[in-house]
Amino acid sequence: MLDVCLLGTGGMMPLPYRKLTSLMTRFNGSSILIDCGEGTQIAIKEKGWSFKPIDIICFTHYHADHISGLPGLLLTMGNAERKEPLIMIGPRGLERVVNALRIIAPELPFPIEFMEISGMEETFSFNGFRIEAFHVNHNVPCYGYSIRIPRAGKFQLERAMEQNVPRQAWNRLQKGELVEIDGILYTPEMVLGPERKGISLTYCTDTRPVPMIVKYAENVDLFICEGMYGEKEKEAKAVEYKHMTFREAALLAKKAQPKELWLTHYSPSLVKAEEFMEGVREIFPRAMAGKDLKSTVLTFQKE
Ligand SMILES: [Zn+2]
Ligand SMILES: [Zn+2]
Predict the structure, then answer these.
(1) Cα–Cα distance, 71 to 38 (Å, whole number)
(2) Among the options 3, 35, 55, 65, which is catalytic?
(3) Distance (Å) from CA 207 to ligand 2 centroid
(4) Does the annotation count 65 as an active-site position?
(5) Could you say which ligand is closest to the alpha carbon of residue 140?
(6) Per-residue 3-state assignment (H helix, E strand, C coil) for the chain
(7) Per-residue pLDDT for 22 more than 80?
(8) Which of 48, 114, 186, 272 could serve as a FRET partner for 101 with CA atoms 20 to 30 Å apart?
(9) 118 C-alpha to ligand 1 centroid (Å)
(10) Closest ligand to Cα 242
(11) What pLDDT digit, counting tens, does each position of 162-206 carry?
């Protein structure tokens, strides 16, 4: 089960009625934050989620609307007496940028581990889930992220019996562990069926539409994508500043066929996202305009 909250939906600057784009998810007692612009900690507070279990912060890129809220958030996490290491993932320069911001948050009760991305694609594995970073096309190095929770195959009793797998190993094998008993090694594949469909979410913002996004958003449960401008006429502007229109986001979704599309990162000039959604749904029907604090729970498919 993955709890998802789109904390804000604005681009460039926070507005009285719209916070900056950022995503928070919770899985197995561990929280992940993607981007942290000015005021992101206010949105987390409004949602009522805790700061302390934020174990990973991913940054798409280092434009201020995506990172300037970090020092304040770190101080708040310190005040919550977090002691465990905090992992940060982001494009090259991560450590330099974060350490520069930390001049105003120098003393923290937890260490920070930096994972800098330099290639086109990179996968980070954690306990029970994966984060995949993929390069997109903005005017500075920028990455989108997929969060995937894999799901092992079903336990197959007959196969376990056939291969004389001892009963005391079953439970651990089901969890994906290797088990050795009396010098014999048992592997999960010996008792599990084929891997089942897991949970997947793809998030990308501040980019032109590129094929890499389709690759990572393909068949995901939720695709959260930038829609900077609603008006079709603003496509030239989107090209110039390396952003996307609603229509362009919808065309990506049409190709990738996620279960659902949420738009975010609206230009301050765009007041009502909903006004443009009809055109979006003509291209991709399962599309919604993201709203601040829009939330959902993604679960494994029922069988
Ligand atoms: Zn931005
Ligand atoms: Zn940007």
Answers:
(1) 10
(2) 65
(3) 8
(4) yes
(5) 2
(6) CEEEEEEECECCCCECCECECEEEEEECCEEEEECCCCCHHHHHHHHCCCCCCEEEEECCCCCHHHHCCHHHHHHHHHHCCCCCCEEEEEECCHHHHHHHHHHHCCCCCCCEEEEEECCCEEEEEECCEEEEEEECECCCCCEEEEEEEEECCCECHHHHHHCCCCHHHHHHHHCCCCEEECCEEECHHHCECCCEEEEEEEEECCCECCHHHHHHHCCCCEEEEECCECCHHHHHHHHHHCCCEHHHHHHHHHHHCCCCEEEECECCCCCCHHHHHHHHHHHCCCEEECCCCEEEEECCCCC
(7) yes
(8) 48
(9) 20
(10) 2
(11) 989 999 999 999 888 899 999 999 999 999 999 899 999 999 999
Answer yes or no: pTM beyond 0.85: yes
Q: What's the gap in Å between 28 CA and the centre of ligand 2?
A: 31
Distance from Cα 21 to the centre of ligand 2, integer Å: 11
CB atoms within 5 A of ion ligand 1 belong to 11, 65, 206
Domains in the chain with CATH codes: 2-152+197-298 (3.60.15.10), 153-194 (no CATH)
